[in-house]
Amino acid sequence: MSSHPIPAPADPVPTPGAPPPDVLRCAYLDLQVTDLAASGAFYADVLGLVVTAEGPGWVALRTFDEFIHHNLLLREGPVAATAAFAFRVRSPEDVDRAEAFYRELDCPVERRREGFAPGVGDAVRVQDPLGFPYEFFHAVEHVERLAWAYDRHGPGALVRLDHFNQVTPDVPRAVAFMEDLGFRVTEDIQDTAGTVYAAWLRRKPTVHDTALTGGAGPALHHVAFATHEKHNILAICDRLGALRQSDRIERGPGRHGVSNAFYLYLRDPDGHRVEIYTQDYYTGDPDNPVVTWDVHDNQRRDFWGNPVVPSWYTQATPVLDLGGRPVALTQRRDDSELEVTIGADGFSYTRPDEDAPMPSWKQGEYKLGHQL
Amino acid sequence: MSSHPIPAPADPVPTPGAPPPDVLRCAYLDLQVTDLAASGAFYADVLGLVVTAEGPGWVALRTFDEFIHHNLLLREGPVAATAAFAFRVRSPEDVDRAEAFYRELDCPVERRREGFAPGVGDAVRVQDPLGFPYEFFHAVEHVERLAWAYDRHGPGALVRLDHFNQVTPDVPRAVAFMEDLGFRVTEDIQDTAGTVYAAWLRRKPTVHDTALTGGAGPALHHVAFATHEKHNILAICDRLGALRQSDRIERGPGRHGVSNAFYLYLRDPDGHRVEIYTQDYYTGDPDNPVVTWDVHDNQRRDFWGNPVVPSWYTQATPVLDLGGRPVALTQRRDDSELEVTIGADGFSYTRPDEDAPMPSWKQGEYKLGHQL
Amino acid sequence: MSSHPIPAPADPVPTPGAPPPDVLRCAYLDLQVTDLAASGAFYADVLGLVVTAEGPGWVALRTFDEFIHHNLLLREGPVAATAAFAFRVRSPEDVDRAEAFYRELDCPVERRREGFAPGVGDAVRVQDPLGFPYEFFHAVEHVERLAWAYDRHGPGALVRLDHFNQVTPDVPRAVAFMEDLGFRVTEDIQDTAGTVYAAWLRRKPTVHDTALTGGAGPALHHVAFATHEKHNILAICDRLGALRQSDRIERGPGRHGVSNAFYLYLRDPDGHRVEIYTQDYYTGDPDNPVVTWDVHDNQRRDFWGNPVVPSWYTQATPVLDLGGRPVALTQRRDDSELEVTIGADGFSYTRPDEDAPMPSWKQGEYKLGHQL
Amino acid sequence: MSSHPIPAPADPVPTPGAPPPDVLRCAYLDLQVTDLAASGAFYADVLGLVVTAEGPGWVALRTFDEFIHHNLLLREGPVAATAAFAFRVRSPEDVDRAEAFYRELDCPVERRREGFAPGVGDAVRVQDPLGFPYEFFHAVEHVERLAWAYDRHGPGALVRLDHFNQVTPDVPRAVAFMEDLGFRVTEDIQDTAGTVYAAWLRRKPTVHDTALTGGAGPALHHVAFATHEKHNILAICDRLGALRQSDRIERGPGRHGVSNAFYLYLRDPDGHRVEIYTQDYYTGDPDNPVVTWDVHDNQRRDFWGNPVVPSWYTQATPVLDLGGRPVALTQRRDDSELEVTIGADGFSYTRPDEDAPMPSWKQGEYKLGHQL
């Protein structure tokens, strides 16, 4: 495994003089859905997230190991979109720090002592320089940690919110900004020309609390929940098959190259993408080795070489500004990972050595033809 | 689950008056390979099959639970092909019965008291009316059953030969013949017009000892080995990824609809297809319910709805006649499963109800274009 | 692994001239329980067996892969006891054969064309020469096989009835009789003097349909249900822990030496013992190697050397005669496995070589003192 | 789950004015063994730890996810003992902080710029006020992280050093001192009188980097390595069984109540205890709920209620002072967990409600008789 530094951005976000908040971890996603009954059924009944509380137009859900109020807040609204990527900070004062940090950047900032979400107290929401709605909070209602409540765990029990994944056009610029916020890169995808296609960044010592995927953004690529073991993820597939909802499966299951985790991608009733994820590795040392994957390594996204379905690259869901309006997308100007991984013959199979023979059983895969 | 009888063939193989042999189970595959070192490395070093014995130009391998000499015999030869699908019969007299059964059908038959393979005694080989080389034997050398030898089991230990899969153009005709031989159908794939695309038949009480897949035949579709658990199959994928041999993975892993087993398809150095398989169900009662799947049920081949790669339908490896010459293929005249499961728009996604909406993330999958 | 023939019994049951029925497999246990609500809650709600039907005083349950009416019939009665070990036979005529076989032995025999149990047709019940109530039937109502109904499977889904285990004083005598009935030994436990402590016998090609455990009998040692994987068994333990019913766990989980299966023993609300079991091996060849374990091999009952709790040897539940009265026990006269595996120092740790050192961390285990 | 604060110690270690070092995590154990060949074979060949380097009298091993030089250093010496519990700190300056912190406490302190172990740089070793030899280092040689090297992973691959466990007589005193060092309690075991039997403390956000177990100390209770999944731990048991080394298994496998992890305890050739451990939970929030278990809750140590073998409580291995001499033990004066969990009848089964009935199959377990 090699590591290549991500180039400095041409047009960086200025680094604030104010210190960043001490972010503990990604904590919850505030997700706007267009049909609360349908989405609630998917997340609570199909995926088995625990309902902490619900009210008119909203339901708050959590994973089995969680002790804060929720990891997912569904709110009914006119469009499918993310209202906030919410992070927990170490202390109440870190909310102040977050507010000062973003105010110095002249971002839209809103502070609410009473909080923005059920069960959550004093918080600040911002639209960051990349266009994403972020929330920072410390005060939160504690609820029962159901880690030991195996009588309530289904075969595919979700035990933890693992990470977010954001689509943004200029990955080096976004990385530099997130590093200013105190995040650290653990892995990335580049090509030999130095183009950065994606990067993974963490606060808690896993591979990521959020990832930055190059594309038209700001947008939500996915939110990821963790299971204990791989068979739990397979059980979710089996359950979807039995329920005749296999169409919810977009990609996987498989083993990631990046992160080394086992994965599955689903699409919820609004098309929001949900990853089920397990078994990455500890990254908490300051000199944790960064892993750079070559964009032409066809095991980078799936360690078993299974191709990535095109929708996984091309589809993402909008984010909202602080006023609840969808944020317009900025197109990516760097090369597209999807496009560079399609050969001249129209097949998505890719490898650095163009002369390497491609097996016949790979040749029928994913010819994209004219439909893109 | 419903069951629809397979129609009687238009042009049946005559039913012999002689009783069929009492077949216990599929026992070993006699496989001709073009590079014994490469194939031996794949089966012994990568997949971890146990080498029982080897000699000039051959190696005999077995699974960990096996007590007969081998489940796979690799022999080097000029072309990649199957020399025999070998079945064990209950008694020495059943070898006589097999000989008489096929002689009555005027098939090519060769009886060798000394056996055709190392460790195997008195046996008969035939080229059956469908063109396949079959062997029947009882006498065989016992070897140590390594079921308890966990110090020798790798993470993807193969514990049993599970089944063969044969490509044949006329499935109802092949089924009727195999029923005369004493096999029983457990599952099949049909359409509402009664076309039969594939059938699964068993002697031992699992879903199959062999399956009949509609296509140009006679040909070997695959040979399948069983693991104890699903994670063993995932470990094989991980191992291939680590060895940078992920190109060996053709399809999967996934859950079959048919058989309910968890599966993975690999291609060996000659392109012979190998399935890794686990967890089907007991079928030993004479009134075991037959399950008929609709060819337009997109969960039939993969219960999670993941598409079948085209090569899986179109590629198979030759079989040899008793003289060691590849048998010419007969084309299938019934509808092709691959073709009927491609919509008018060129996508492989299929469902009985043409009006059902297809999610956008399925639309990029497997457009086949001009390459077939 | 070595194999030692079981000695001929001194006082054999005569071999009938009538042919035995062709037994397919163990099919269901007719179990008398003293509190149907409590037992139903245990088997249906805690273990997750599927209720096929219920009526006043009874409930019929099945496993997820089953297609016959039930694998367990609970009936409320005055004492906790087994009313019948029921086996399915290949054809209706095999019920006649079973009747003739036992009538020739002058056993109590009752034939009921309407069956003895809900969903079961023409059947014969006998009290066999060993004192056990056996039922043989072919006609049975088909129900939906829920193998694919993963939306109904819990984390510890029971997919198959695997076997019975019967306590009987004279194991060689019982083995010889069961062989006359068409069963075949797969494994046994002996000592160097030829004392037989237990034997495993099969019809279907697994390690057993029933086992014979030496002790005061006739009695039910346990009934065993299979899961797909080992984690399913661990999930049952976790569920019992979460429900604060860990007292139901008597022994395990662990790996058996005999059978090579992964196991767990529970006790139901009446004290009936239930095993959860997974992953033994194929035994269907007529020359399948028999494995004889030395009674002093401390890995025979638990391959990891964990000691067997004394109750597992000393406790069993009664069986009923055809009139519903508990059958009196006959004491074992051969050596007791429990006693011979306790050293002179009162510890249960055993090994053939008395001089082998016992680690200090094994010395505190299972000193039995005066309580036996 | 409830939480009860641990009482302040009667005789506290003074809190230094110097700030503690910023400890990242437990990093490696420096273990003295009496037969390097035997110990190396156990850790490298049986357990499959990766040998990073070796030299005369020593071998350095690591887990598959590790990127620092080693997690276990075996050094041959005259007695079996722990030479150092080594922790990695965030920066080089934290080594200075560690030195100052312990010098203020007048502990034996040794600073070596060249390090104490192969591959490790500037470090300080101390004998802490509880008598334990601790090392703090930052500089360390990076080695290849073999997380993706699945071709080298066995079925029981150890992927991470998880924690240490130390035996100390006065748990509240030890906890208070470790809190001064910056550790935080995640779980503990108490009785209603406030006696503290054990406590778990963390730096990295898992349940622990070290635990404090009440007993005669200072001593090493165990060192724990993590696997990805539970089946990996079962595979270690199977491997030990196959190698006829099942005597190495002291306790388990099972589910802990405390930590919710799945566990197995082994004893190495010198009797040092090694835990294999998987799947506890995230504890990184500052207000992470502490879980206090009642010493009479018989699911606290094994969530399935399986009894703890006495040796697990009574046996531990010595630690060395900075001169390499074994440190004398101080006896525990508080109640013993082993003794309070044995009933008046001599059985180890325990529960808060003395009137709760004990099932008959639990009564034979672990009667301790006279041997204590």
Automatic annotation (TrEMBL), chains A, B, C, D:
Q: Which SUPFAM superfamilies match?
A: Glyoxalase/Bleomycin resistance protein/Dihydroxybiphenyl dioxygenase
Q: Which GO terms describe its molecular function?
A: 3,4-dihydroxyphenylacetate 2,3-dioxygenase activity; ferrous iron binding
Pfam families named among the record's database cross-references: Glyoxalase
Keyword vocabulary terms for this entry: Aromatic hydrocarbons catabolism, Dioxygenase, Iron, Metal-binding, Oxidoreductase
Residue stretches making up the VOC domain: 25-139, 160-279
Question: Which InterPro entries would you find in this protein's record?
Answer: DHPA_dOase_Mn/Fe, Glyas_Bleomycin-R_OHBP_Dase, Glyas_Fos-R_dOase_dom, GlyoxalaseI/FosfomycinResist, HPCD_C_sf, VOC_core, Xdiol_ring_cleave_dOase_1/2
Could you say which cofactors this protein requires? Fe(2+)
Q: What is its EC number?
A: 1.13.11.15
Region of interest: Disordered = 349-372
Q: Which family does it belong to?
A: Belongs to the extradiol ring-cleavage dioxygenase family.
Q: What is this protein called?
A: 3,4-dihydroxyphenylacetate 2,3-dioxygenase
**Lineage of producing organism:** Bacteria, Bacillati, Actinomycetota, Actinomycetes, Micrococcales
